[in-house]
Design a protein that fits this description.
This protein has 92 residues and is mostly helical. Helix content is 87%, strand content 0%. The model has no long low-confidence stretch (mean pLDDT 84).
Amino acid sequence: MATQAVKVKHEESQGGGPGELGKRLTGTVQDTREFLHDVRVEMKQVTWPSRDDVVSTTSVVIATVFFFGVFLAVVDWLVQRGVTYIFKVFGV
């Protein structure tokens, strides 16, 4: 029984015959069409943000990135100065 199941599974993985490739290609095209149809249906159900929402959230992101960029630059500069000072003190 187990040998028969393995044999059937092996035949399925091999394609089964010359007509099987055509069925798989047709199935793939049909699956792709169905997928794209489902995507269109789902995209119609999406609640898209308004232009004002997008502009306000984008400006918040830009301001936040600017703030943290400046903050990290200052921290980096302070750490660099501190390490340089420590190296001078210990003569390294």
